[in-house]
Design goal:
homodimer; Molybdenum Cofactor Biosythetic Enzyme, Chain A; Molybdopterin biosynthesis moea protein, domain 2; Molybdopterin biosynthesis moeA protein, domain 3; 4 domains; six-stranded mixed beta sheet; 24 strands; EC 2.10.1.1 (chains A, B); Molybdopterin molybdenumtransferase (chains A, B)
């Protein structure tokens, strides 16, 4: 029985080793209304200008601006209304001097007209109206191509498809959207101490919380997963199960079994699978024993069995790998700065990640650790929307210090209306 | 034909009027692995301590700390290993003087032991090992109840169920989770100028981008929606369709038809439904004509037909209403501060919301408008993860000013690793 020696590498190096492997998934197409959360697999090129024609941004009257010159409160100019056009309709008339066409928001500016008078700027009288000020050429007109022009790249390959991207794709008639396939994920919680959620408690045992948590994180990123049954500490069956998982999935996430104990089989499993271990120790707390390995086309993430360490490993390593596989341009976590609202002693030289709650107090972004925060803590994760990142090699942090914060959850914790 | 006079109210007042209506949905239960994104409908009380028993946070040997006193490099203390316990197992032995039990991470501390020696701190020799330093009472022991104690509230009613909450619920054996039902949403795009995504273009017409965009925003919040077919400008059928939607759904979102034009039927529809109009003009740009009305148990959101205004109306009004209906404690958008990286002229005294991209540049949070940003703009929405909020009554903003930013999208736009 020997204790395996492991050399910790810096967090940044570990993340870079993970994403450098970059198995990019093949591309496919999905229906527009299924495409949210996918990564776009090709540039989307404008096939026409937006706006596609000069249009009215208001309800009002299309006029020739030249006819409005010298209008004033004392000398109102009167126009004769020769047509009404609703949105989506096009007038077949061309304006002559002193003529106007009633126009709706979004309708095409008729021939001859070059300005729009808003309803609120008129006094109406049957089939005519008057105005009290001159209008400029193109006043109140949304010009063809002012937003984008034909052949412009309107969405980039590698961009997250968000609601706005879906609006753009709809505009250009994409009923099907070119995307990267999403990786499929196997989740295997390991450990003879683990009970299923539905199981009654037994002495010395705990319920498996990492499996459901990781499954929720996978669901949050709109990936599909298969949750394997809890794998007890038996080497042969563990090898068989993980091997099967690597054959059926693009990512295999195990929790537990990554330490250096007698029943921690992951090193032996990786060896049996001839997987290339990218690292098995990271200079960070919690989660220093996080291990990542790769086979030919599968990532193996060996996350800690400690919930806070498990969560941290997911956010730091699994998430960037997932988005790299999906071909995303933006794969790293969103970082903000915040003012630390309570001191945090830091007893070791490793980088420290602390489940935390960020709040904007009306003046500044603030952050506090979300309660009891050891590696094994679970409740703090539920009350966090961020992780404080204290770099290695620094000492304790005092209240009032500015710290870097990784945003992990977009559900706000504020209840006040701060607008 | 008269122009309806509308009195704008401040954004904050408008939001407060919306959420004050608060139709809270009935409660139900959902399976644990379906509960992500729901709001918890009751407090979750700890039914036992966490940890539930004194446990080892490391692989190593459980000892009696008293036996380690005076250990040093010169005078190592030797222990005899009398049992091996894996995680989940419990030893039936009680330690006597000089004895130790091999223990795995997570296993219960055996009777008589009060400290754990990490494997790395030992020299092993068959059935014994020696140490070179004394251990304190409870050194390397995770104490029962140190994270939380029986009867503590571990999750609050009204909290978003995130991955961490799911881990807590799993720990306490919740296979079913008490939640508020989610509101069902009807989406009705209105306007005779609108074509379906699959339709070929026609003169004067545009494809409906608001319907797919709003549907994506609804999907993002994990609500179910029914997308109605495009409603052309016809009062009678519009009344019938919206009436049916209010009967079948908790929220009805219309886009378009909220202006003051001849074909803008929403006021007439609200009147026909005897809906209470909370406001029909807000002192903001874009989206000043956003209208919100309520019937007995349904919200009617009349969002602008202009995509940027439509998006803004969703984020400001629909989102808080959705979370208020779901019983959430946190219903308002997350706000941060950022440094404006380009000047923004502001030609009117209304509050201004600008689709924008926030980036943390390693030193500070920065923000820039996401391109062409008029009310009708669509592409900028796709490239935004935030909205800059410039309060009413202020003048233009210079580069370098600090501005408030509402976060609207958690997908990062950064590609650099900033750890």
């Amino acid at each position: 029985m020997t204790v395996e020696k492991r050399t910790p590498i810096p967090v940044k190096d570990a993340i870079e080793r993970v994403v450098k492997e970059s198995f990019v998934m093949p591309t496919t197409t999905v229906a527009l209304d299924e495409s949210l959360g996918y990564i776009l697999a090709q540039d989307i090129i404008a096939t026409y200008d937006i706006p596609r024609f000069n249009k009215s941004p208001y309800d009002g009257f299309a006029i020739r601006s030249v006819d409005s010159q010298n209008a004033s409160g004392e000398h109102r100019k009167t126009f004769r209304v020769i047509d009404h056009i609703g949105a989506g309709s096009v007038s077949d008339k061309t304006l002559a001097q002193g003529e106007a066409i009633r126009i709706m928001t979004g309708a095409a500016i008729p021939e001859g007209a070059d300005a729009v008078v808003m309803l609120e700027q008129t006094i109406e009288d049957d089939d005519s109206f008057s105005i009290r000020k001159p209008f400029e050429h193109h006043e109140n007109v949304s010009l063809q191509g002012e937003e984008t022009q034909e052949n412009d790249v309107v969405l980039q390959r590698g961009q997250h498809i968000n609601a706005g991207a879906i609006a753009v794709l709809a505009t250009y008639g994409y009923t099907e959207v070119p995307v990267y396939r999403k990786p499929s994920v196997a989740i295997i919680a390991t450990g003879s101490e683990l009970l299923d959620v539905a199981d009654p408690l037994e002495p010395g045992k705990i319920r498996n919380s990492n499996g459901p948590m990781i499954n929720a994180l996978i669901t949050k990123h709109k990936l599909t997963s298969k949750v394997y049954k809890i794998q007890h500490d038996d080497l042969e069956s563990s090898i068989a199960v993980v091997k099967q998982a690597t054959e059926e999935h693009d990512i295999v996430i195990t929790t537990g079994g990554v330490s250096v104990g007698d029943f921690d089989y992951l090193p032996a499993i990786y060896e049996a699978l001839q997987a290339n271990v990218l690292f098995n120790k990271v200079a960070m707390r919690p989660g220093s024993v996080t291990t990542v390995a790769v086979t030919k086309d599968t990532y193996l993430f060996g996350l800690s069995g400690n919930p806070s360490a498990c969560f941290t490993g997911f956010e730091l390593f699994v998430k960037p790998a997932v988005y790299a596989m999906m071909g995303a341009n933006a794969i790293y976590p969103q970082i903000v700065q915040a003012t630390l609202m309570e001191a945090f002693a830091k007893p070791n030289p490793f980088s420290r990640f602390i489940r935390a709650t960020t709040t904007f107090n009306g003046k500044e972004m603030t952050v506090v650790p979300s309660g009891f925060n050891k590696s094994g803590a679970v409740i703090a994760i539920a009350h966090s929307n961020a992780m404080i990142m204290l770099p290695g090699g620094t000492r304790g942090y005092q209240k009032g210090y500015t710290v870097d914060v990784i945003l992990t959850d977009s559900t706000a914790f504020e209840t006040e209306l701060l607008l």
